[in-house]
UniProtKB/TrEMBL annotation:
Role summary: Catalyzes the formation of 3-(3-amino-3-carboxypropyl)uridine (acp3U) at position 20 in the D-loop of several cytoplasmic tRNAs (acp3U(20)).
Pfam family name, one: DTW
Location in or out of the cell: Nucleus
Family, per entry: Belongs to the TDD superfamily. DTWD1 family.
GO cellular component: nucleus
Catalytic activity: a uridine in tRNA + S-adenosyl-L-methionine = a 3-[(3S)-3-amino-3-carboxypropyl]uridine in tRNA + S-methyl-5'-thioadenosine + H(+)
Subcellular location, principal: nucleus
Protein's name in the database: tRNA-uridine aminocarboxypropyltransferase 1
DTW domain: residues covered: 37-250
Top EC group: transferase
InterPro entries xrefs: DTW (IPR005636), tRNA_Mod/Golgi_Maint (IPR051521)
GO molecular function, one term: tRNA-uridine aminocarboxypropyltransferase activity
Keyword terms of this UniProt record: Nucleus, S-adenosyl-L-methionine, Transferase, tRNA processing
Length: 264
């Protein structure tokens, strides 16, 4: 991606050529449900008009659970990007369904800002202090599974919960008693590139896939080897759409870009 001054510049991404081809081909039927879709089916979590091998597969260092508000429109949510690109590590739940949370077996955090939220840098100290006997209980991760005797690095969390919802609708989920015991963590302020910006909200309100990406990048930077773009492909679809929509705005004006956004 060219340097247009956006936070998406410089990402290490798989080729967008298959997405350009799929765009030219137009909407196609999902092979599973038969619905008309472009690029992917947000209902089935499957690529549409794309060879599966053209969609990057990203391995994450932690499990990611996304709790989607029932009123969140599937076709407008970026949560499905995470599931498509990291299917082994990402699960999406529609509230009131939430994942089983066993904090005695896993270090689990909820990504949500607030006065009681810690930073990514503070995670290690938090879980070290809370562990029985004062001993830390972080997960041990191998840097290179192909090498015998590979170095290991400490990651303080096993699972991260994200809420997929507009800001005004988060209260219903965040106040659920099943989530109250989870420690909260927040990200440093970053500017969103999401084209469906919530009216009246600051540009630090991130789309779900942006939040997942930035959290993992920060986690990696603090606790794992130097970051070398391991999770950049989480923004594979997002960055393509961002560039496509920006181009449409420049050539046709904002009022003419609605057709570009209709992935549903």
């Amino acid at each position: 991606m060219s340097d247009d001054g956006s936070p998406l510049w410089g990402l290490m991404l798989a080729s967008h050529a298959p997405l350009h081809d799929a765009q030219r081909a137009g909407r196609m039927k999902c092979s599973s449900c038969g619905a008309s879709r472009m690029f992917y089916c947000y209902s089935c979590g499957a690529p549409v008009g794309l060879d599966p091998c053209d969609v990057p597969n990203v391995k994450l260092p932690v499990k990611v659970d996304i709790i989607k508000h029932p009123n969140e429109t599937d076709g407008k949510s970026t949560a499905m990007h995470a599931r498509l690109l990291a299917p082994q590590d990402v699960t999406i739940y529609t509230y009131p369904c939430i994942p089983e949370l066993d904090t005695s077996a896993e270090n689990i955090v909820l990504l949500f800002p607030g006065p009681d939220a810690m930073t990514v840098e503070e995670l290690w100290e938090h879980f070290s202090a809370d562990a029985c006997g004062g001993e830390p209980r972080p997960k041990r991760l191998k840097v290179n599974d192909q090498s015998d005797g590979a170095d290991t690095h400490n990651c303080p969390v096993h699972r991260v919960i994200f809420i997929d919802s507009t800001w005004n609708q988060t209260t219903r989920i965040i106040t659920d008693e099943r989530l109250q015991a989870l420690p909260k963590v927040e990200l440093k302020s970053r500017r969103t590139c999401f084209w469906r910006h919530q009216r009246g909200s600051p540009d630090t309100y991130l789309a779900t896939i942006e939040a997942v990406y930035y959290f993992l990048k920060d986690l990696h930077s603090h606790y794992l080897p130097p970051y070398e773009g391991e999770y950049d492909n989480l923004l594979f679809f997002f960055s393509f759409l961002y560039k496509l929509i920006n181009k449409a705005k420049q050539t046709a004006g904002k009022t003419q870009t609605s057709d570009v956004l209709q992935l549903r």
